[in-house]
Amino acid sequence: MSVPSASIESQATAFRECFDHLRTEIGRVFVGQSALVEHLLLAFFCEGHVLIEGPPGLGKTLLIRTLSDALTLKFSRIQCTPDLMPADVTGTNLLAETPAGLREFAFQQGPIFANVVLADELNRATPRTQAAFLEAMQEQHVTVFGATHRLEAPFAIFATQNPIEMEGTYPLPEAQLDRFFFKLIVQMPDVHELAEILARTTGAEQPTVTPRFGAAAVRQMTAIIKQVAVAEPALQTALRLVRATHPDTPEAPALVRKYVRYGASPRAAQAIILSAKALALLAGRYHAAVDDVRKVALPALNHRIIRNFQGEMEQVQSSAIVNAILDAIGEG
Amino acid sequence: MISADDRLIVFVRSCRRRLVLAAFVRFSAYAAGALAIVVTLMAIWRVPEPLFLLAAALTVPAAGAAAAWLLTPTMKQTAQLVDRRHRLEDSLTAALQVRAQPSPISELIVKQSADRIAGVLPARAIPLGIARPVAAAAIALGVAAAAVSLPRSTATTERRGGIRLASNSGGRPSPETSGNAETSAPRNQPSSQRTGSPAQAAAADAQRSQGDSTQPPPTDSTPSPTADSGRPAATEPPGSAGAPAAGNGRMGMQAGTGQSDSAPGKSATSSSAQSGASGAGAAPGAGRGGGAQAAGGAYPSGAGGVRQGPVIPARGDGVTAVAGTSLSAGLPPGGQRHESAITSEEVPARLRPYVRSYFQAIRP
């Protein structure tokens, strides 16, 4: 019995070490936004996909690129445009000649076959192409011409979208939004951070990242996160949180009843619990607590709350609704 | 060596015991406070019986025990409470939750939880927090105790006073003493009992005076009861003032009433004037003084002509002369009057010889 527990302890230590390594390495290139970085890494270790939203030029693409550089993982980038086709994402069968001189169709993998996929400006792709991501995101495999191709773990899609240029874009459908583990908002850096960005990027010396930890290490860490227990109050808090996002439930606060059309799905609860587990492990605990759940509630629920017409007209932010829910359910 | 699991269970159990104890004390205090309020309210009406107080006191711990039993938290609830109070990040709850499932991770959780509570004493983890309810209950009980003890002491004093005064007049309560006893007696006592007692006592007093002195037997009017009977007359309208006096068969009262009726222009029309005149009818000398007093209306009617009559000089107005003349035949002898005055406790002990000699001196 003592050997496995020692093994768990060592794996937990490795997880914290890896997390700290990534945080440090990303911090070399990407300035500030510590909460954003932490949530991004949490989602990555929980095998979740992340939607990053922010105005252009804030380093969204740089952040994802740095993450993949800090790990010895396969990285690919898909620049989404309206003429991007699903086959451009998943790959397709090409007629190829065998060494024996015969011709046959061979599957040519698309850019989605990678550990870390950056889908840049996903909302510029057509719905048909966006749908190509759905199966990959949920099932972690793609089906082309009837043949299913498994994606190698770890697999994470980091999609970005620009909230201000809506011309010629295709807003992501709710079904696809729900598949994102977290939705993270990139904030404008403050003066000090901006000065630091200028100092790092305009000098002769460019910051570099030291890669460490491969796919196997990441898979181990993902497994250890799932072993973490969840305290009953934390579980109850997560359930109440998710239920409170639905306007027709008794737990829903007034803001939800007034401005929300649809609440979060069970996937939201999964995301909350899984990321709370990772957070607990980072804190050196082997059980998730209520505080962990509360910390991850906003990124997990942000994109899963569908506002009604009144909410959109009055520009009620999802974050305000989530905060109201957190206030309503109290400390658990 | 105690395992982490055992340490955890011992800690949570002791915390739970403290919660039960705190609930017991708190609800006992609430019950004591409620009881104190009930006893205080009861004491306003009547002093509660000791047996009742004893039975009520027994309900206090019973109520506390019942509440503590009903509110006994489960181990899980106790763990959650301690977690919240000490910001243990649900450590105890999680440990209790997973300890039944043997796995490497649960072992780690229990160990971690036991380590976190190592520095926490149950007494610190669960403070009883009973100071305020206990203080409130103590104040309420103090008020109740005061309410119970205060009326009892007053009643005892009154009763004792009544007995002492009664013994002064040879074992019978004097008319005034009886009057005091009336005020302390329950209000639902019939009025006939209240008015009959002084009249009977006065009659007996008169008989005793008759036996003691060489004076002629008194007529049907007795000065002291007349003075006493002036009190109810004072509260009644002039027209009806004669009714109680007539009922008591007191001539002085009748005379007073008649005098008032006969000279309404000179005598005060108030009942005090009437009763003053009735006192004037008790003796010729006293009658003049009493009549003058009554005409002036300077003294309360209850004082009567017996006491103040000789002290205040007569002015000799027509009213008094008429009253004194008409009632002199029915006056009691001087010996009877001073004995009656002394018996009625209006005269301090040191002045009694003087009063006796005075009445002897003015005896007609």
How are the SSEs placed, and which strands pair?
The complex is a heterodimer of chains A (332) and B (364).
Chain A: H1 2-29, H2 34-45, E1 50-53, H3 60-70, E2 75-79, H4 86-90, E3 91-97, E4 103-109, E5 116-120, H5 127-139, E6 141-144, E7 147-150, E8 156-161, H6 174-178, E9 182-185, H7 191-201, H8 215-227, E10 229-230, H9 232-244, H10 254-259, E11 260-262, H11 266-282, E12 287-288, H12 290-301, E13 306-307, H13 309-313, H14 318-329
Parallel strand pairs in A: 1-8, 1-9, 2-5, 5-8, 10-12
Antiparallel strand pairs in A: 3-4, 6-7, 11-13
Chain B: H1 4-45, H2 50-70, H3 75-86, H4 91-98, H5 104-116, H6 122-125, H7 131-168, H8 175-184, H9 191-212, H10 223-234, H11 242-248, H12 251-262, H13 271-280, H14 284-296, H15 304-311, H16 318-327, H17 334-343, H18 352-361
Helix pairs in contact in B: 1-2, 1-3, 1-5, 1-7, 3-4, 4-5, 7-8, 8-9, 9-17, 10-11, 10-13, 12-13, 12-16, 13-14, 13-15, 14-15, 14-16, 17-18
Most extensive chain-chain interface? A-B, 23 and 20 residues
* Straight-line distance between termini of chain A: 34 Å
- Rg of chain B from C-alpha positions? 39 Å
Percentage of residues in DSSP E strands of chain B: under 5%
What does this structure look like?
The complex is a heterodimer of chains A (332) and B (364). With 332 residues, chain A is of the alpha/beta class. In chain A, the strands form five sheets. In chain A, strands 2-5-8-1-9 form a five-stranded parallel β-sheet. In chain A, strands 3-4 form a two-stranded antiparallel ribbon. In chain A, helix 1 packs across helix 2 and helix 11 packs across helix 12. Chain A is globular, with a radius of gyration of 21 Å. The relative contact order of chain A is 0.15. The mean pLDDT of chain A is 88. Chain B is mainly α and 364 residues long. Chain B is 72% helix and 0% strand. In chain B, helix 1 packs antiparallel against helix 2, helix 1 runs parallel beside helix 7 and helix 8 packs antiparallel against helix 9. Chain B is rod-shaped, with a radius of gyration of 39 Å. About 48% of the residues of chain B have low confidence. Chains A and B meet through helix 1, strand 10, helix 9 and strand 12 of A and helix 3, helix 4 and helix 5 of B.
